[in-house]
Amino acid sequence: MSISYNPKADDLVYKTRENNQKPNIKASNFIIWFDKELSLYAIKISNFNEELKEFKRNLNIVRLGGIWQGIEITDKDIEDARQDLLKIIEGRW
Question: Using one digit for the tens of pLDDT, what is the confidence trace for 4-27?
Fold first, then answer.
């Protein structure tokens, strides 16, 4: 197993074992190699620093899909919903 970083190309490569085959999945900045049993050979992340910044920026963000896609929920929306729920709960006591 090894992890290597190439600063010139800004690539991070994680290998569990040697691999001479073509990548199985190429998606955005990620390249993944695995075998028929789905055991991982390697992962390569291109533009690693950009991906890391994006990951850190989105740690507390939940991406909404379906009918909610593109909708932003603000802290004020959450607080308003919380207050409404507290009023409903008080009414039941």
Answer: 999 999 999 999 988 778 889 998
